TrEMBL record:
PANTHER family reported in the protein's UniProt record: EXOCYST COMPLEX COMPONENT 2, EXOCYST COMPLEX COMPONENT SEC5
Record-stated family: Belongs to the SEC5 family.
The organism of origin for this protein: Kryptolebias marmoratus (Mangrove killifish)
Protein's name according to its UniProt entry: Exocyst complex component 2
Residue ranges that the Swiss-Prot or TrEMBL entry lists as coiled coil: none
Superkingdom of the source species: Eukaryota
Subunit and interaction comment: The exocyst complex is composed of EXOC1, EXOC2, EXOC3, EXOC4, EXOC5, EXOC6, EXOC7 and EXOC8. Interacts with EXOC3L1. Interacts with GNEFR/DELGEF; this interaction occurs only in the presence of magnesium or manganese and is stimulated by dCTP or GTP. Interacts with RALA and RALB. Interacts with ARL13B; regulates ARL13B localization to the cilium membrane.
Role of this protein: Component of the exocyst complex involved in the docking of exocytic vesicles with fusion sites on the plasma membrane.
Gene Ontology BP term (one): nervous system development
Gene Ontology CC terms: exocyst
Domain Exocyst complex component EXOC2/Sec5 N-terminal: 132-628, 635-843
UniProt xrefs under SUPFAM superfamilies: E set domains
């Protein structure tokens, strides 16, 4: 026999007070095993069973009825537990009576207000349907509403709708409910239908007395009228009653019109306040934008603008459109402000990137990044020209010394001095600005301008090219790709800007130091230094040092060499000019030494003239040290090749032609002149050729050893060869690059150059192979494969020395005795030649036959 259940116990109710028909939630213990187990529920003595909705054994939802008691207990009765008890009570509030002309601060809840058109019919409290009509726990499915609308066109899952579809409702709310629970839900529906019918009948029964009283009154009036016989006579009681009722109706309409008008006005005011509260972000946005702009919080402005644009950008509401138009006006003013700040000079690179990002996020028209680049280019050009104009007017020297900040050239010199053991610029004495010639000061200040501004200009362009100027918002909106596309289209324009800057730098320095190298039309723009003192070799040496430091700083930015070629040409001419001026001035100083002879003999029997002569020569040699020194990057390999080609032509054609002309014109004894000239050209050719070979062969040969042993490769422990390794392919590609460089200048130089390059590579490979202590079988096969592949590839340019080196390298390897190893070697060689056939074409002569092994 099952154990009897405990009686229901109510431990809580929410809310704890309210007027009649207030919806309450009852909580407790043992409140029933299901909807059918609940047989009684009373609050303050009123039966609330008709509106009760059982949710679980600890929760019931119902509405409080119009009880007589102001305060009472909540009693629950179940079949399984019987009559229950309560530890809490509910206080029933009496509704405040409000006259038809009295205002109330409480509005009727429109959600529960009777909106039916036919208001003459009574409204039962039970007509308010429960939120869960089946009385079981909801189990929402994952079927989207859009798909349900397609499956059930024109229907609805709302059980209060006239087009209610039960199938839709079950799929939406009970997709995972079990069949047993659905059977229980069907029983709940039957019970609720029965209760509704009983409730409606009870509602009618409760109002029968009123109906009967009204029927009795109408019958008495009818009998009175019939007895008087005045029912249809003008001015009768019926007519008077009708008139009275009509006037009462008109009066009521008038009274309620005012009340309803005030309510409509209050509703409008309330709706307006709700709109203001709900959309206060938009209405306050113009003022917030103005405040944040004044504070410089541009990020906040941009975020608020993006939010407003997404919410109200396409609105059709008139008031929203008006406010949003005001927002757009403020944003347009912000765009103009940011663009002005962006184009303002001087400006830091950080600020430029920040303003460009802001403008891109605000979808500013045009290309702000390119506008900034163009403005910076014009500003740097103007700075350089102003530097020259100030010195021509005689005011520039004070400006350079008056700036207490370290110059850009000084900062470059500090880092560069670590390598050279000294500073680019020594500490200036107090009389520096008065002792240093103005052209020297001008070159230093001009270099400071270029080194101080051009790096940021170049970095801004690099950021523009790689898209790092934009935020994540810009990346999502496609600004980065648009920027990269614009950069690709404007590469030539930017190249012209860099060329213009470097050309302006070179022309300004030429105008100050080498005016004869400028066209006459440009002397008025870049010249004007004619009345300045001629510089000595020491000052020219300092200028060369300054220009070299400027060139090194620009080269460190990885600016292409062709854009800096004009500076290299300037350096070459400055070095030649310094050399000529030093020799010329030294010659004049030596000539004037006789005037300084005092004819005083010292203990050694000599005057001071020999010492003065020695001192003069030492100073000259010190001045020549900087001009004669060749810095990295100042040698143009292509020009070396051109000079070599010219030397060959001089030796083979020019001198022979000149000798013939001498003989035709009757000059004899020219053989010695021709021989000496040819010897001089040959010596020059030899030195230049060795310099070029050294610059091209050393990097290729030096890359072999690191490439061979990359990845801790060991000849004694390696796998079966699968092909030629990448280091050898890279070396061949570098040789091909040299071949292309030489071929573009002179085809006749190709065999001469390539033979020496191959000789250097062969010598290095021979050294590396002979240094290996021992080879494994696979290691020997790998080494032989790579030596044979290299030998076959450059066979056209092998000379006796390179052949001997390759032979020594192969002799140092163990011999192959296995036929399988020889076959594998042949297959891998053919695979290598096939894969690099296109690259190796330049090494093959037209009549070269393939090498057979």
């Amino acid at each position: 026999m099952s154990r009897p259940r405990q009686p229901p116990l109510v431990t809580g109710i929410s809310p704890k007070e309210g007027t009649a028909w207030t919806k309450v939630t009852i909580r407790g213990e043992n409140l029933g095993t299901g909807p059918t187990d609940l047989i009684g529920l009373s609050i303050c003595g009123h039966n609330c069973m008709l509106t009760a909705e059982w949710m679980s054994a600890s929760k019931i939802v119902c509405r409080v009825g119009p009880a007589k008691d102001d305060k009472g207990e909540i009693i629950v009765t179940t079949k399984s537990g019987g009559l229950g008890t309560s530890t809490v009570s509910f206080k029933l509030l009496k509704p405040e009576r409000i006259g038809i002309l009295e205002q109330s601060a409480v509005w009727v809840d429109e959600m529960n207000y009777d909106m039916r058109r036919d208001r003459n019919k009574g409204l039962s409290p039970f007509s308010l349907g429960p939120g869960n009509p089946l009385g079981i726990e909801l189990d929402k499915g994952n079927v989207p509403q859009k798909d349900l609308g397609v499956i059930f066109p024109g229907m609805s899952g709302d059980f209060t709708s006239e087009k209610f579809s039960a199938t839709w409702y079950l799929i939406e709310n009970h997709a995972g409910t079990s069949f047993e629970h659905l059977k229980a839900a069907a029983n709940n529906l039957k019970k609720q239908a029965t209760k509704k019918n009983e409730g409606s009948l009870g509602y009618v029964k409760g109002g029968l007395s009123t109906f009967f009283e009204a029927q009795d009154a109408l019958s008495a009036i009818h009998q009175k009228l019939e007895s008087d016989g005045t029912e249809k006579v003008a001015g009768s009681m019926t007519q008077r009653l009708e008139n009275i009722l009509n006037r009462a109706s008109d009066t009521a309409d008038t009274l309620f019109q005012e009340v309803l008008g005030r309510k409509d006005k209050a509703d409008s005011t309330r709706n307006a306040l709700n709109v203001l509260q709900r959309f206060k972000f938009l209405f306050n946005l113009p003022l917030n934008i103005e405040r944040n702009i004044q504070k410089g919080d541009y990020d906040v402005v941009i975020n608020d603008y993006e939010k407003a644009k997404s919410l109200f950008g396409n609105t059709e509401v008139a008031v929203f459109k008006k406010v949003y138009a005001e927002v757009e006006t403020r944003i347009e003013a912000l765009r103009r402000l940011l663009l002005d700040k962006l184009l303002q000079t001087p400006s830091t690179l950080h600020d430029q990137k920040r303003y460009i990002r802001y403008l891109s996020d605000l979808h500013a028209p045009g290309d702000p990044a390119w506008q900034c680049i163009d403005a910076q280019h014009k500003w740097i050009l103007q700075l350089m020209q102003n530097c020259r104009d100030e010195f021509i007017m005689g005011v520039g020297a004070l400006d350079l010394e008056g700036d207490t900040r370290p110059s850009a050239l000084g900062r470059i010199g500090h880092s560069a001095s670590l390598k050279r053991g000294g500073s680019l610029r020594s500490q200036r004495p107090s009389t520096w600005r008065f002792e240093t010639p103005q052209p020297v000061q001008f070159v230093e200040k001009l270099s400071d301008v270029v080194i101080g501004q051009l790096p940021n200009f170049w970095k801004l362009w690099i950021s523009y090219v790689n898209g790092s100027l934009f935020s994540e918002t810009g990346e999502k909106s496609g600004h980065v790709e648009k920027s990269k596309k614009n950069a690709r289209q404007r590469q030539n324009d930017f190249k012209k800007m860099i060329e213009e800057l470097t050309n302006r730098l070179v022309k300004l320095i030429r105008g100050a130091l080498l005016p004869t190298t400028l066209p006459r039309a440009e002397l008025s723009v870049y010249g004007g230094w004619e009345d300045k003192t001629e510089l000595t070799g020491a000052w020219l040496t300092q200028i060369i040092h300054t220009v070299r430091a400027c060139h090194e700083a620009l080269s460190a930015l990885e600016i292409p060499n062709d854009l800096l070629q004009v500076i290299q040409d300037l350096l070459l001419e400055l070095r030649v000019h310094c050399l000529m001026m030093t020799l010329l001035l030294t010659t004049e100083d030596v000539k004037r030494l006789a005037e300084k002879e005092d004819w005083v003999v010292d203990n050694e029997g000599t005057t001071g003239l020999p010492f003065k002569f020695e001192q003069c020569m030492v100073q000259m040699l010190q001045s020549l040290r900087e001009p004669l020194e060749i810095k990295p990057g100042e040698i143009n390999e292509q020009r070396l090749l051109i000079i070599l080609s010219n030397c060959q032509y001089l030796e083979r054609h020019t001198f022979l032609n000149l000798a013939d002309h001498f003989e035709k014109h009757g000059f004899t004894g020219t053989e010695k002149i021709t021989r000496v000239s040819v010897d001089s050209v040959r010596e020059l050719d030899r030195k230049l050729f060795e310099a070029y070979i050294e610059r091209r062969a050393d990097p290729i040969a030096g890359s072999l050893e690191p490439g061979i042993y990359a990845g801790y490769f060991d000849w004694r422990d390696c796998q079966t060869p699968g092909g030629v390794r990448n280091y050898l392919k890279e070396a061949l590609v570098n040789v091909i690059a040299v071949h292309a460089e030489v071929f573009t200048v002179s085809r006749d130089l190709v065999p001469r150059v390539l033979s020496r390059i191959v000789e250097a590579v062969a010598d290095e490979m021979c050294r590396l192979m002979q240094c290996v202590s021992s080879f494994s079988k696979n290691g020997a096969l790998q080494a032989r494969l790579e030596l044979c592949a290299l030998t076959d590839a450059v066979a056209t340019y092998l000379n006796p020395d390179s052949n001997a080196s390759f032979k020594l390298a192969l002799d140092s390897l163990p011999q192959l005795h296995s036929g399988a190893d020889k076959k594998l070697l042949e297959e891998l060689l053919n695979k290598f030649k096939s894969s690099m056939q296109l690259q190796l074409t330049c090494f093959q002569a037209s009549n070269l036959q393939p090498v057979k092994r």
